[in-house]
Amino acid sequence: MLTNGTNGGGYRQDPPQLRILLVDDQVLNCEALATMFSQVERMRIVATATDVREALTLAADLHPDVVVTDAQLPDRGAFRCARDLLGILPSARSVFLDDEISVSRLREALAIGVAGYLLRSTPFRLLAASLARVAQRQQVFSPEIEDLLVVTPSGFLIKSTETELSLAALTTRETEVLCFLAEGMSVKECARRLHLAHSTVDNHKSRLMKKLNVHKSTELTRLAIREGLISV
């Protein structure tokens, strides 16, 4: 809407609405957030999606400004969504919502370049304010997550422990293999899920176990649970 300006005769355009896409496999979560955002001026939920494929299709069609994604989508969907979104709609900004603090998920989100990482316990007014800051090309984090970060000339980094540094040395594919193996999949099942050769997954497994100084699959599972890579 155009309104009279304050400079006597000019016109100014009201700030455009912030267009938001919600991605969560829990439909009730999407509906609850959509209801709350309907009460916020200049913010609009353009669509909701329950999986990565639907989210990317909607993003390509609707061109949201911000995509708010459940950080714990099945099969590491949040990370696939954020990475693929960069190729489909580079202007869109990804924000993750998580139930709990996971250093490993946070680290990977930072590596992808998400615009925000917030806890679901964040009051809604602060969530809305954070998305407004994201629209201004800022990075936003819940206070509890900010406590884990340090600011460097190259961006935000996590205050790391020895284990976390080892996890940071893993490639994206090695991290995927780690998660699937830790969930109890065999190498064969993992290869089928990732559409890779059995030998390729076996090589990934050997390399990641060497990097983590882990020698048994049970140790992988304990490490993955402790670091928040998988849920119990």
What does this structure look like?
It is built from 11 helices and 10 strands. The radius of gyration is 20 Å and the shape is globular. The strands form 3 sheets. Strands 4-3-5-6-7-8 form a 6-stranded parallel beta sheet, sandwiched between helices. The chain has 232 residues and is α/β, with parallel strands linked by helices. It has helices at 27-37, 52-62, 77-88, 103-112, 124-135, 143-146, 162-168, 172-182, 187-194, 198-212, 217-226, and strands spanning 2-4, 11-13, 18-23, 43-49, 66-70, 93-98, 116-119, 140-141, 149-152, 155-158. The termini are far apart. Strand 5 (66-70), helix 3 and strand 6 (93-98) form a beta-alpha-beta unit.
Mean pLDDT: 87
The rough form would be described as globular
Placed side by side, the strands forming the largest sheet appear as 4-3-5-6-7-8
Instruction: Give start-end ranges of low-pLDDT stretches.
Output: 1-6
Number of helical elements: 11
- Major sheet: 6 strands, parallel
**Approximate helicity band:** 40-55%
Q: Write down the Rg.
A: 20 Å
According to DSSP, the number of beta strands is 10
First and last CA, distance: 50 Å
Structural class: alpha/beta
Q: In percent terms, what proportion of residues is strand?
A: 15-25%
Pattern of helices and strands: EEEHEHEHEHEHEHEEHHHHH
What would you call the quaternary organization?
Answer: single chain
